[in-house]
Task: structure prediction
Amino acid sequence: MTAETNAGAPSHELEWHAIDWQKTHQNVSRLQARIVKATLEGRRGKVKALQWLLTHSFSAKAEAVRRVTENHGKHTAGVDGKTWNTPKQKAEAVHMLGRRRNYKPQPLRRVYIPKKNGKMRPLGIPTMLDRAQQALYRTALDPVAETTSDPNSYGFRQDRGTADAIEQCFKVLARRDSAEWILEGDIKACYDEISHEWMLSNTLMDTAMLRKWLKAGYMEGQAIHPTERGTPQGGIVSPVLANLALNDLEGRLKKQYPTQAQKGQPASKVNVIRYADDFIITGRTKELLEMEIKPKVVEFLKERGLRLSEEKTVITHIEEGFDFLGQNIRKHEDKLIITPSKKNYAAFMEKICDTVAHMGTETQEEVIERLNPIIRGWANYHRHVCSKQMFAKADNDIFHCLWSWAKKRHPQESSQWIARKYFMPPKGRKWTLNGYKKEADGTLRNIQLFHASSVAIKRHVKIKGDANPYDPTWEPYFEKRLHAQAKLNPSWRYDEYILWQRQNGKCPMCHEDLTEERGWETHHVIWRVHGGTDDMNNRILLHPNCHRQVHSRDYQNVTGASDIVL
Result:
């Protein structure tokens, strides 16, 4: 075990671009697999020993620094105003991690973001060092969380998402003999109210580190405020802690209320589907949910310092329908129909119209480039349910919004003139906002507004409930699933998908998976400054960090460089 502690660590002064990322990933994955095995066997002492080994290894520290310097918040500083942008800063950060005795986390920088209901949601931004420490210890906590999670918990878990939760709703509600009553649960200020005592007593990790994070406090303006309960939204480890706190709700109810009929008793039809702190519970009757299930949920939450919101927690019949994760689920004459919810559509159109209204004197090309990601993202989110009619409605409403924008820009021009200037592309669908974008070689390329109705409806294949990404026995399943999802992902460009397939979904530098979470960049094998072309045979996909590694001065000494032709 001791030999693995310094696995991958160089004997000389650390050079960030000289790190063998394939080796660090293998070392971390091997220890995480052992943590999964020990957790399944119920050997808590063994789990703690393996976690200590992992959090003190060079490989895990390097991976933690890479994680916080590659994600979307890498340029957002904490209260100290520092970010890690250079290879030297990243290399120095590796040596700062894992020191528990002298480590004291700084208060979180408090910021606010708007919620759907118009209120503001508080977020806590840790410093880069605190983020990296949390990422390091999350590496050791995640395998435990995945192994002990409820089968139908989908929020903030690897390889799971809202589409899996909605598909599970379809599975438990679509049959004619399915449950007809649904308890829509809403936990009041979940992240802000979780009991520190409960987390410290029930979270299988280094409790000294956990206590430091929970008691770090936050800074708002120039004042420092203590934290007596809750886990701050914004920390890397916070979603895992919240999931661990809410785990076992499904298991506890399933033990007391089996789905199948028992000894003459009718089936309870109790199913729990949870995404982070949003959940629904199905039941055979309204009385069962109101008189038995709800009190047990209240008791479960009370143990963790949480409570239900009485105003938002309601019991609904399936024929009335309910909203869950931005989609409406309702039965029409024994047929379950799932569509984008009215609230979700209204918020989407409000965002579109606000974006157009604030464009001012920008060109139609700039309008198209601003709107296309919004439209494409919304349509892709709803592409697994009955959305065709709503997509057509969205295209129509967006057209009227853009027509009003164009008329305001040219109040003296006729409708025919506006149509010719803005809405008559040379190819493709007419009455589509279009323009011309100048390419690097000076040529003009016609660009058009994305149509939501162009997105094909495709049923989502739900992940298996007990699938564990840290368990080696599930590796073939996840590989097969990743390839199937990549083939159907409409957000990928065709050439990127071909390159991804050619590379078998792996980065040739570090040999890790190319995923949307970590992102990728296109690298020209023969650099264009050396005469290389944009031909597919001269391009490969690399992780952003690996791409920088290729172009660094240290590239010649990088293990794995021989896989790429210079």
